[in-house]
């Protein structure tokens, strides 16, 4: 009986330590990403808690701005967008379901900048079609994620699309780009302008 109690106490202690370690890791993750979520919330005018809830449903950080972009353009709840996305629809299919064409994703930027991956393909579609035929463009998920985040980071922090594209083409995720730009300084340490909506 005593052996059983000792084994049970040891097991309980191991579980408790594991729980505490998981809680600590979750708190670190939220604090690192928290300001990114706050930025998304501020830009799209939604509470940060709503951004965290959407993230908790399984939407990756780089795709969070897409949820709120489509939600605001289609005038539907973010939860509706999340449900459709988790149901297997592409971002383009969700957009088209609510009458949103690929033209809403276009964000003006210098042609020289947009030759860089991952933007060259998407901007090639826009550049090679007359504006009246933009509705024929079919963007992939990665194209939409990159274009929405380009708009979000450029407008929210007041950085040129060239700077955002440079960081993105070096392979950085948008959460890391946010962390780098949120302080209002570029790599040389010079202050940048504040963002605008």
Which key features would you list for this structure?
9 helices, DNA_methylase_N6_adenine_CS, signal, 61% helix, mainly alpha, nucleic acid binding, 197 residues, disordered C terminus, single chain, globular
Question: Which SSEs are present, and which pair or pack?
Answer:
Blueprint: H1 2-44, H2 48-56, H3 64-74, H4 78-86, H5 91-97, H6 120-127, H7 141-157, H8 161-169, H9 174-181
Write down the overall geometry: globular
Any low-confidence stretches, pLDDT <50, length ≥5?
15-32, 185-197
Give the proportion of residues in helices.
Answer: 55-70%
Query: In percent terms, what proportion of residues is strand?
Result: under 5%
Rg: 21 Å
The biggest beta sheet is recorded as:
none
What is the end-to-end distance? 67 Å
Find the count of extended strands (DSSP E, 2+ residues). 0
**Could you give the order of the helices and strands?**
HHHHHHHHH
Structural class: mainly alpha
Please, how many domains? 1
Please tally the helical runs, counting DSSP H or I stretches of 4 or more residues.
9
- In round numbers, the mean pLDDT is 77
Short overview:
The protein contains nine helices and no strands. The chain has helices at 2-44, 48-56, 64-74, 78-86, 91-97, 120-127, 141-157, 161-169, 174-181.
